[in-house]
């Protein structure tokens, strides 16, 4: 998530371009980013009810009561519209049994709102999903993550990747963590080895 990207990128740039590899990227992520990422998800997971989780997820509010940096450009009316729609569909949201089902529902509900993009849909689904106990089982691609996927040799038009398609070192991470890595390290991934052709050919859309 971009709120922690600046700090991580500073850590990343301390390693020379010739020394940066998948193993180093994973080590930096685990040491520097995972604790904060887990804290963020726990904030939503610990909301007393699904309604409360939606009420903080829709406006993109963190545990400090501030909006996440990568959602700051969204206007208040847009976020209020999203909140209203999500609360109106709380029952349907609560019935979702997988992250994919939740993401599909939120995409259908929120995408028609002018100003809402793929990143907001994914982030909101991830935050609400943490409260429901459903997390991604594949890596969803949008904006920065698409750039990271292209750096690994994948078609930038695909919508998702499986963990098995990625370099073995990255497979140590959870899908939502790999999503973070593809976005935050996209410039560093360009300097790593390309994916084998057979792996690229197995790319698929959800």
3D architecture notes:
This protein has 206 residues and is mainly α. It has two domains: 2-42 and 137-200, no CATH class; 49-132, no CATH class. It is 56% helix and 2% strand. It has eleven helices and two strands, in the order αααααααβαβααα. It has helices at residues 2-13, 22-45, 50-57, 76-88, 90-94, 99-110, 118-132, 143-151, 175-184, 186-189, 197-200; strands spanning 139-140, 160-161. Strands 1-2 form a two-stranded antiparallel ribbon. Helix 2 (22-45) packs across helix 7 and helix 8 crosses helix 9 (175-184). It starts with a helix and ends in a 6-residue tail after the last helix.
Q: What is shown here, in short?
A:
The chain has helices at about 1-15, 20-45, 50-55, 75-90, 90-95, 100-110, 120-130, 145-150, 175-185, 185-190, 195-200; strands at about 140, 160. With about 210 residues, the chain is mostly helical.
List the helices and strands and how they pair.
Elements: H1 2-13, H2 22-45, H3 50-57, H4 76-88, H5 90-94, H6 99-110, H7 118-132, E1 139-140, H8 143-151, E2 160-161, H9 175-184, H10 186-189, H11 197-200
Antiparallel strand pairs: 1-2
Helix pairs in contact: 1-2, 2-7, 3-7, 6-7, 8-9
